[in-house]
Prior knowledge:
- It is a single chain.
- By secondary structure, this protein is α+β, with helices and mostly antiparallel strands.
- A hairpin with a 2-residue loop joins strand 2 (about 90-105) and strand 3.
- The chain is elongated.
- It has 17 helices and nine strands.
Amino acid sequence: MRFExxxxxxxxxxxxxxxxxxxxxxxxxxxxxxxxxxxxxxxSVMTGxxxxxxxxxxxxxxxxxxxxxxxxxxxNPAKVMEQIRALCPEIVGAGPIVQVEALFxxxxxxxxxIILGVDPKLEQGVTELANNLTTEGGRAHGKGRLPQYKxxxxxxxxxxxxxxxxxxxxxxxxxxxxxxSLLGRQRGGSYGVTVSGISDAKMSEFDMxxxxxxxxxxxxxxxxxxxxxxxxxLNDPFLADAVKRRIEDNLPYQAETWYESQVAFFKALEQExxxxxxxxxxxxxxxxxxITSTLIMVVxxxxxxxxxxxxxxxxxxxxxxxxxxxxxxIGLSGTLLGVVAGTWLxxxxxxxxxxxxxxxxxxxxxxxxxxxxxxxxxxxxxxxxWVTISAVVLTFLSxxxxxxxxxxxxxxxxxxxx
Length: 418
């Protein structure tokens, strides 16, 4: 192996008859580097988005939601909370919820949405609703407070669609509850409430469609005194599956985890990340073709040297190995440069993006669209490992044909005209 590696390095560093081969070699190294940099940065950003969105979902959704196994409402939520707490010490907070579909009316504006009835005191131990009250969403002049009877918290995008509803504004909710009338019982009833706060959950699902009321107000809206479910928070959200199985095996309830409620979303993120990996890997593939063309030119340039080596007794396998090693040297050089540069860029992506934005006057990362005030980046060693392996494998495959053609070169034909 030492002999083959020595000859390969001499071929790579030796003087060329033409500078074109040197140029192609440099382009090949640069191509592999660019591909590796792009893959590392994109994988890190997509992992960062995935983790940031996962944390947002975990904060705004309960880790576990418990329903009646028969699909009926729960008459005694206090009993259910007592049972699940006794069975599952992982539960650190629990509270009842009522969900109502409604139309929101305010000063000529109307918007469909969902009303979630919660117990304000218990809800603080389950979700981040209290921490989401903001002066940034809509045009709220104050942070507001958790809802009391006949009060509502609006998602800030929902508030914008209702004419920039603000803290203290009055509005009407229309639901399909049955109400008595002169003509008998009819469906549909209006209910007046006051805005007590604006919520910025940094999730479009909540900010655009949800309003939050206290439990008593929600029960007035439905005309029922029961609740739809009990939701709970765990000391570790990733224990949700185990806790769910324990509840379903020992209690007459069924449960849904935070992951199951968003499974389509998380699957879409995983598929998107995989597809981006495949697409960007084509950059490395193009660079690998450059390595192939470089080695083919080197083989043509070194026909005489190959013929001499063969007459001196060097085997065809050694010739093949020489050119495989030479190609790998090019690929590994590009991969190493790409890993170093890509990792540095991933860790410093936000300062770099801010610098580019300042130079060109662009808003590269719009916080209003993406719900983050910076680009979320999470550099994962496993992702870097897979990028490195992919680059090395593609580089190795690109060397096989030129190395094979060099190995099968007849020394007589190589030296005939020398």
